[in-house]
Amino acid sequence: MTTGPYAVVRHPGYVGASLWALGTPLIVGSAYGLIPAGITVGLLVLRTWLEDKTLQAELPGYADYTQKVRYRLIPGIW
Q: What are the start-end ranges of the H helices in the chain?
């Protein structure tokens, strides 16, 4: 898929989950809530890396897709 959010990043669902995880403690004003949020985002980054590696090895056409959509989670960075 190369339209919509998939044209910008390869894993837009994980981008949304990361924003939700970080935004929730900020909305409720919980500095301590940022600790599990940071862990959650770290795990999502790890999962993204592992999933991307697996998809490139096992899904036909995914390597071509990675050439068209270069960024996994953050446009211009990673």
A: 12-28, 34-58, 62-68
